Fold this sequence. Notes:
Strand content: 15-25%
CATH class of the domain at 77-153: Alpha Beta
Number of strands: 8
CATH architecture of the domain at 77-153: Roll
CATH topology of the domain at 77-153: Ribosomal Protein L9, domain 2
Helix content: 40-55%
Largest sheet: 3 strands, antiparallel
Low-confidence stretches: none
Structural class: alpha+beta
Mean pLDDT: 81
Number of helices: 5
Oligomer: single chain
Amino acid sequence: MKVLFLQDVRPTARAGDIKDVKNGFARNYLIPQKLAVLATTHEVVRAEGLRKEAELRQKAEAAEWRELIEQLKDEPVKVIVRTGPTGRLYGSVSAAVIAQEIAAAVGREVDRRSIRIPAPIRTLGKYSIPVQFADEVETKLDVLVEPDEDSVGRIEQARAARAEAAAADPTFEEALEQDAAESGAESAGETAMTSDDSGEESGEKSSE
């Protein structure tokens, strides 16, 4: 079914676009929600005006996002997460979570579909994430994934336990040195015993 979009329905279309869509999508969603109408001759003529309005709106939207991007570049977007004792996340940081944090920083709704995470984020650290805020407005934002307060405690406890275990157990080099020292002591003892045995034998021969 060919429809004329009255409003932006991203990523499907912009206001003023005429596109073929599935009948169910048009009849059950687009038309009842007044997002689109059937592309009749009258509506097609109307589309030209809608396109011009959409172009002006897109330019204004792009300009606004460019200003907001400059604000976001001042410091990374922070995402606070819950982790295990090794610092590994329970799950992963989703595009929806990042979009929510960006929205909180700039005071404007962000479509989660504009966040393009290259690979699942499952560990703490800083990540460079591509974001497309509007048509022809794309950038990379630094996202800093940090542990929450409880997770910090678990990580510190695990780190202390590892340090204690490392202090109790000798390193490979220390074990080698210890083995060498013990071998040296054994050799010295054998030499001393041999010397004593030789002395006894000499004493026996002299007495004879």
